[in-house]
């Protein structure tokens, strides 16, 4: 059955370019990953429509940047209110196209909305500086100005939040933003555009171009008018876009893959560690860039942790996200199932012990049973590769220095987690972990006020927090002489 929305006009089968809802010569289908059901079609746009979007954004920039921060904030807050008023429909659309359980989708709607009000307020505090000059013949001032036309390329795992966390600060400080959403989840992005239009945000300021990633991405990265690209997605695509932005020297934010360690020391609160492990590993069925990828558990509590964790994992409810009580939705597509299946087979071949799960789940083609694998070893593929699915490998370790070396032995550096009670250890380990975000005695840490981002090949730039606006600002220095 088609989606039963309170406001069916939120499901828009058109792209939003230059303030108009447009169709392309071709279109592509979007399916529900839980059932395979067709949700609808969106335009398959390319470089020409992207250029049109960039031109209209460029034309809109001078007026938008001149408005008072307070005036821009009022529009963003109106947009936020509309998101919250339509939260249930936004959640329904998200669950239909992305698969996550409705409770998680509702949570994401409010998480996504929180970036609009946070940045609406934060943009009022884009302060400059006056700088004492080394000579008394002049005065030095640093202004912080909007960078110009911005672009965002976003992933399917957080169809709303990955957009508002980029669009919020861009618009708030005075920049127009063009978004290319993931092919799997365009309807959430388009619903946001419907609400932006209703909120009275000028159409050229938030545009959504659906279609072919290569041609849209090609135009966004090569067009010199675009001054900033913010990307969230795979490390592979991120590296390609980084290179494509070099010829026009664009400012970039890259939020790429991770390989999060989750360390449980033997002084940890075991129940808290199990709760944290569930939250970190199984949110969005393991499809987040900060999901725990490698569990390292100290000798003394290894067996107890594996037993309690596997028991809790065995109780997760797998099924279509729209059904009540489901905690584990489908993976996004067949390729994700194939990858997870291969990682589990590789671990089994190398002596891994499947304690629970370990196979596709009968709920449907894109479902995989939540899995715990004990006796994980460094030569198994998931020690190096991002799993992006509901599989938890549990490695054994004995000493602190060893586990820090293992935890840091990856090209990634996004999130790390550890559980310990000894205060000296907590500080030592927190400082030694080579990661952009370290969660201590918790499995969940994302919110609008905390800086989110990675080091190493997990990327650079920070989203959320007071630092989030910096990504869309440039500094202009004024040297005033002739006084
Ligand atoms: P995933 O493998 O998780 O889908 P991707 O990095 O491929 O991760 O996707 C993240 C976003 O990047 C999506 O919006 C996708 O369409 C986009 N994308 C993928 N390849 C390209 C490309 N060559 N140029 C521009 N965007 C791309």
From TrEMBL:
Residue intervals of the Aldehyde dehydrogenase domain: 21-477
Pfam families linked to this entry: Aldedh
Active-site residues annotated for this sequence: 255
Biological process per Gene Ontology, one example term: gamma-aminobutyric acid catabolic process
GO molecular function: succinate-semialdehyde dehydrogenase (NAD+) activity
Keywords: Oxidoreductase
Positions of transmembrane segments: none
Any single Gene Ontology cellular-component annotation: cytosol
InterPro entries xrefs: Ald_DH/histidinol_DH, Ald_DH_C, Ald_DH_CS_CYS, Ald_DH_CS_GLU, Ald_DH_N, Aldehyde_DH_dom, Aldehyde_DH_Superfamily, Succ_semiAld_DH
Oxidoreductase among keywords: yes
Family: Belongs to the aldehyde dehydrogenase family.
Record-linked NCBIfam families: SSADH
Protein name per UniProt: Succinate semialdehyde dehydrogenase
Natural source organism: Rhodoblastus acidophilus (Rhodopseudomonas acidophila)
């Amino acid at each position: 059955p088609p989606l039963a929305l309170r406001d069916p006009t939120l499901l828009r089968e058109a792209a939003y370019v230059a303030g108009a809802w447009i169709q392309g010569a071709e279109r592509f289908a979007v399916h529900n990953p839980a059932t395979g059901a067709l949700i609808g079609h969106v335009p398959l746009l390319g470089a020409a429509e992207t250029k049109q979007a960039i031109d209209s954004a460029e034309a809109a920039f001078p007026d938008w940047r001149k408005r008072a921060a307070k005036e821009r904030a009022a529009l963003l807050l109106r947009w936020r209110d509309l998101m919250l008023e339509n939260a249930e429909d936004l959640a329904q659309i998200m669950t239909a196209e992305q698969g996550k359980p409705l409770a998680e989708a509702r949570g994401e709607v409010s998480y996504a909305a929180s970036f609009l009000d946070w940045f609406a307020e934060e943009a009022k505090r884009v302060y400059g500086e006056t700088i004492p000059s080394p000579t008394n013949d002049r005065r030095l001032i640093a202004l912080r100005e909007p960078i110009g036309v911005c672009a965002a390329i976003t992933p399917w795992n957080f169809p709303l939040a990955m957009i508002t966390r980029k669009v919020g600060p861009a618009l708030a400080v005075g920049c127009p933003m063009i978004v290319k959403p993931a092919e799997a989840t365009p309807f959430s992005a388009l619903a946001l555009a419907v609400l932006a239009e209703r909120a009275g945000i000028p159409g050229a300021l938030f545009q959504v171009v659906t279609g072919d990633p290569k041609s849209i991405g090609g135009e966004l990265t090569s067009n010199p008018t675009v001054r900033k690209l913010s990307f969230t997605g795979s490390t592979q695509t991120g590296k390609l876009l980084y290179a494509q932005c070099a010829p026009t020297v664009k400012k970039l934010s890259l939020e790429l893959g991770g390989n999060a360690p989750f360390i449980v020391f033997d002084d940890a609160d075991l129940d808290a560690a199990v709760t944290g492990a569930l939250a970190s590993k199984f949110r969005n069925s393991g499809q987040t860039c900060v999901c725990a990828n490698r569990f390292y558990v100290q000798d003394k509590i290894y067996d107890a942790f594996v037993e309690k964790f596997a028991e809790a994992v065995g109780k997760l409810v797998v099924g279509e996200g729209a059904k009540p009580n489901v905690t584990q939705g489908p993976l996004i597509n067949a390729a994700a199932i194939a990858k997870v299946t291969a990682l589990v087979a590789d671990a089994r071949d190398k002596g891994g012990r499947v304690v629970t799960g370990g196979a596709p789940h009968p709920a449907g083609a894109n479902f995989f049973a939540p899995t715990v694998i004990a006796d994980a070893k460094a030569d198994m593929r998931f020690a190096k590769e991002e799993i992006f699915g509901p599989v938890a490998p549990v490695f054994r370790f004995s000493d602190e220095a060893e586990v820090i070396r293992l935890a840091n032995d990856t090209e990634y550096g996004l999130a790390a987690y550890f559980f310990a009670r000894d205060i000296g250890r907590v500080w030592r380990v927190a400082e030694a972990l080579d990661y952009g975000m370290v969660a201590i005695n918790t499995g969940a840490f994302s919110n609008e006020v905390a800086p989110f981002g990675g080091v190493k090949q997990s990327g650079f730039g920070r989203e959320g927090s007071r630092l989030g606006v910096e990504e869309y600002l440039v500094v202009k220095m004024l040297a005033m002489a002739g006084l």
